[in-house]
Amino acid sequence: MTTPAETAGALLDRILAAPRSGRRRLVAIAGPPASGKSTLAQELAAGLTAAGCLSAVVPMDGFHLDNRILTAQGLLDRKGAPETFDAGGFLRLAGALAGSDTVYYPLFDRARDMAIAGAGKISPECDTVIVEGNYLLYDAPGWRELSKIWDFTVQLDVPPPVLQQRLQDRWMTHGLPPDQALLRATENDLKNAALVAASSCKADLTVPG
Fold it and tell me: Which of 53, 58, 137, 194 has the smallest number of Cβ neighbours within 10 A?
């Protein structure tokens, strides 16, 4: 099995050769929940920086809508679905990442289950941003415009049984008992994973997660 570090190493030359449309190169790492996006993104940023290309990671998770809004809209149980994100705000951030000198962005605090405004910063010296998230290649209104912004795209592919086990393990580490962790995985996360698999724009490269 290929490790995230090995996958990142194999991608470096392709990414460094990718032409950019803005002052920064934007690389999208897309895939379902628990596919390994965050790990691969960090490995890529470290590898690119070591190669002399200062890079940083921006997660999409900071654009989760607040739980109070989701509760009022009856969407709390579907948190993580496309309609539970601020897609417009994320699209504006993506545009700013490509062209602005300094960019601040929200980060998601998983322990507190909430986004923290202005918790992340991209400096003017940053050359390449690795953006990671479930719906970066989602082919639907409000989302498909993102595919025009990315300079290089990677889709992570994980077999459904492996994904289910990872998701169940994730929720158990957050304190859910096994039966509730399995229910959370199957009734929400795996539905979102199926949506990603069925309705994504084609990536430049698909790799195992």
Answer: 194
